[in-house]
Design goal:
Helix content is about 40%, strand content about 20%. The protein is an alpha+beta fold. Strands 1, 4, 6, 7, 8, 9, 12, 13, 14, 21, 22 and 23 form a twelve-stranded mixed beta sheet that branches. It has a four-stranded mixed beta sheet with strand order 2-3-11-10, with no helix packed on it. It binds zinc ion (ZN).
Length: about 625
């Protein structure tokens, strides 16, 4: 179903995070991701003092409730003391700053005179220092915008930041991170909340991603660019949805967030009309373990055997609401379960709207309702665990239920693969930046002068030049742009006489389809593409043979295109022999039709030589030999 977004007052802003293709921001380590096991692990506990945490920051307070150890995996060859926080940061990477200023100017944003590195508190352990270094590089004004089909989207800010450490795994007690990713330079481009339609958000993200790539200085591939989406509707609340990597998911995430906020507002109305008040939600936590002593529920039995207990609270006036769907496949009870997981460290909760179920019987439900003093219209929540986690869990669940009376809480949420979102943590407060005294400010005047004269072409200009100069269709030109192979295409298409459209589609569609078949196309080098162009132009490689040749290179069957041709090409003598055989086979037809038999001969010959020699050579040769054949007979 499609909403009237204008009427709902939908407001969306994007925050695009793009890794730059440069060494790390505060040391000289390469910005390489590792797949292998770290060489060693170091253990840290977060050493931030309370004054630094900011007394009122909800995200910080939330994390400080959880006492965790952090383990960091280091690599002797590609990480150093800076990532491990054993040595102060080096001066800001000026190459990365240059790229960032380039991006700012391409978007007509105003770079700041002096770049000051700041510390942004991070309390989840994703940085060894306990903060992320970030620097504002440029700000937008009314001239810095992109024009989408739904209207302009203005740029707000452009920051240069360090990428966080990669999380390997975590439990409520500890988290393991790898340091290979920590410190990779990252730009954070934030738009104004000018977006008012879900599809516009996708278009804006696509356009901005292309502008970033037009610099030629950004990392490419999975994980190198990600979007955070800020979404709100009138009467709802702003949500920060983290880590969207697929553009096509953006509209769906926004649609479903609108649905969620509308559902939560409906729930609020319903609770108010039922006369539910905050005080009543604050019901006591009751140990109901004894009611389950002879339970036939496997989940309950197994937990009780391990020594866990069952605790419950009444959910005053929530009957039917806990089970209500607020996003496809997600219920209000799922929102509560998110809080239970995040704050209580438990796997989940059981609520009255889904019971009897999970092996819990009607009788057990009745006795639980009685023990919790549930009346008509009330529901209840159960959690299985120890006293401490049950208390944390049920108190956080109560807080969330109380907020249902107010409406939609401000949250940082995580994008799920189906377009839903789940609760990650409360939205951080705004006062969490401190100056980084270990890094000197950088004056931008020099870089600005250097960069402003030679800005890269904008994506749409690159595409229109591909269309006009090489006769590509606009669609193919955009695909070529998005594939990142414009430069190699341009160079080879100018150097060799080759059919440009065909060559562009080799670089785009063919590679894509080979990749889909599981062929490791990343093994194909620019030298291989040059060979393809050269042999195509010399007629030694048939168009039809290009897929097999490149697949053979990728899989290591051939070490070069030349080697492929040696095994596959046909000499002109061999071709002539095949043509002659076809001529004599079809001599009756030729006697009847003369040159009109050309198509038939051609078909016969191509059956044998397809892919081994260029079709145009075959055609020319068939024509000549057919003429001679007719004259002779
Ligand atoms: Zn380093």
């Amino acid at each position: 179903m499609e909403y009237d977004y204008d009427k709902l007052g939908l407001k969306v802003g994007l925050e695009i995070h793009q890794r730059l293709d440069s060494h790390k921001l505060f040391c000289n380590c390469p910005s390489n991701l590792r797949e292998d096991e770290p060489h060693t692990w170091i253990k840290r506990r977060l050493g931030i003092s309370y004054s630094e945490l900011g007394a009122l920051d909800p995200a910080a307070r939330f994390e400080s409730l959880r006492k965790r150890d952090f383990l960091y995996g280091i690599y002797y060859d590609t990480t150093c003391e800076v990532e491990a926080d054993e040595s102060p940061p080096h001066p800001l990477n000026e190459d990365a700053l240059r790229i960032t200023i380039m991006i700012a100017l391409m978007l007509k944003m105003r770079p700041v005179d002096e770049v000051h590195v700041m510390r942004k508190i991070v309390v989840d352990g994703s940085n060894t220092t306990g903060f992320q270094r970030t620097a504002l590089v440029a700000v937008g004004d009314d001239n810095s915008y992109i024009e989408t089909k739904w209207g302009p989207v203005r740029m707000a800010t452009l920051c240069l930041e360090e990428e966080s450490a990669y999380i390997v795994d975590s439990t409520p007690e500890m988290a393991r991170y790898r340091l290979d990713r920590l410190g990779i330079p990252l730009v954070e481009l934030a738009t104004q909340p000018d977006i008012w339609h879900p599809d516009q958000a996708r278009e804006a993200a696509l356009m901005l991603g292309r502008i970033l790539r037009a610099t030629g200085r950004v990392q490419r591939g999975i994980g190198t660019i990600r979007q955070d989406i800020n979404v709100s509707i009138e009467g709802g609340a702003r949500q920060e949805i983290k880590g969207v990597q697929e553009l096509d998911l953006i509209p769906e995430i926004i649609r479903r967030e609108v649905q969620r906020q509308l559902s939560l507002l409906e729930i609020r109305e319903e609770l108010l009309s039922r006369g539910v008040v905050e005080k009543e939600i604050d019901s006591p936590i009751v140990d109901v373990t004894r009611l389950f002593e002879s339970s036939s529920s496997k989940v309950v039995k197994r937990s009780l055997y391990r020594g866990a207990k069952v605790f419950g609270i009444r959910a005053k006036g929530f009957k039917g609401i806990l089970g209500r769907e607020i996003q496809p496949g997600r219920r209000f009870g799922t929102e509560l379960a998110d809080y239970a997981r995040v704050f209580g460290g438990v796997k989940g909760i059981l609520h009255g709207d889904e019971l009897p179920g999970y092996g819990i019987s009607e009788e057990e439900v009745t006795s639980v309702r009685k023990a919790l003093s549930c009346e008509e219209g009330d529901s209840f929540i159960l959690v299985i665990g120890d006293v401490v986690s049950a208390e944390l869990t049920l108190n956080s669940v109560k807080e969330r239920m109380k907020y249902a009376l107010i409406g939609v809480p401000n949250e940082t949420r995580k994008a799920l693969p189906d377009g839903n979102t789940s609760f990650m943590r409360p939205m951080p407060g705004s006062a969490r930046m401190y100056p980084e005294t270990d890094v000197l400010p950088v004056n931008t005047r020099e870089i600005l002068r250097e960069v402003s004269g030679k800005l890269p072409a904008m994506p749409k200009d690159i595409v229109s030049s591909l269309v006009s100069k090489f006769g590509l269709t606009e669609e193919l030109a955009w695909e070529l742009f998005d594939s990142g192979r414009v430069e190699i295409f341009r160079r080879l298409a100018e150097k060799y006489k080759i059919p440009s459209r065909f060559f562009a589609s080799v670089l785009v569609s063919l590679l894509k389809s080979l990749k889909r078949e599981g062929i490791p196309v990343e093994n194909i080098t620019s030298n291989n593409f040059e060979e393809v162009a050269r042999y195509l132009s010399e007629g030694k490689l048939a168009k039809e043979a290009v897929p097999e040749a490149l697949a053979g290179i990728a899989t290591g069957k051939y070490s070069s295109i030349e080697e492929f041709i040696e095994g596959h090409s046909l000499s002109l003598d061999q071709l002539d022999k095949i043509i002659d055989e076809a001529l004599s086979k079809l001599s009756d037809k030729i006697a009847d039709r003369g040159m009109g038999a050309y198509g038939m001969v051609m078909g016969e010959v191509m059956k044998i030589v397809r892919g081994k020699i260029d079709g145009s050579i075959v055609s020319k040769r068939v024509k000549e030999r057919l003429e001679e054949f007719i004259q002779r007979s």
